[in-house]
From TrEMBL:
Keywords: Metal-binding, Zinc. GO terms for biological process: purine nucleoside catabolic process. This is Guanine deaminase. The keyword Cell cycle does not apply. It comes from Pontibacillus litoralis JSM 072002. Pfam families: dCMP_cyt_deam_1.
Length: 150
């Protein structure tokens, strides 16, 4: 099976249903474990990108946080949010069919801007992010460490 072609097909169907032009197919040992398309046109949830949807379904199906044995096939180059999600579940191989530049030409250039920001010092990002050290009687990081028994 041509998984990238399948991802493109999902993207086309999603556009035909009023959504964004993105589809994703997650493969484990030669089998499609899950698929996803961008759904935020239906549910106003910006995290419902194709790749995250595919990851979410696979995690639910396999009941695991470890998808390191899976390969992602995405119709478009994954955005930084989806990239981060794939980092969190250990996915190491991603194939994509369309570029950030192709997305930008149809008005979907945010991913390219975010990647550009991430290549700079945080002070130059479009989001103003400030570290403000704040103490609390119960340090959540230390509490987490204790709860884990370490
Ligand atoms: Zn994304």
């Amino acid at each position: 099976m041509n998984y990238l072609y399948y991802a493109m097909e999902l993207a086309v169907e999603n556009v035909q249903q009023g959504g964004s032009p993105f589809g994703a197919v997650l493969v484990l040992e030669g089998e499609v474990i899950s698929t996803g398309v961008n759904l935020h046109h239906r549910c106003y949830d910006v995290t419902t990108h194709a790749e995250i949807e595919a990851v979410r379904k696979a995690q639910h199906k396999l009941q695991t946080d470890d998808l390191s044995a899976c390969t992602m096939y995405a119709s478009g180059m994954p955005c930084p949010m989806c990239l981060a999600a794939m980092y969190f579940v250990g996915i190491r191989n991603v194939y994509y069919a369309q570029t950030l530049e192709e997305a930008e030409t149809v008005g979907l250039g945010t991913s390219k801007q975010i990647y550009s920001d991430l290549a700079k010092e945080s002070a130059q990002w479009h989001i103003h992010m400030v570290h403000v050290p704040t103490s609390h009687p119960e340090d959540p990081m230390k509490l987490f460490q204790q709860m884990k028994g370490e």
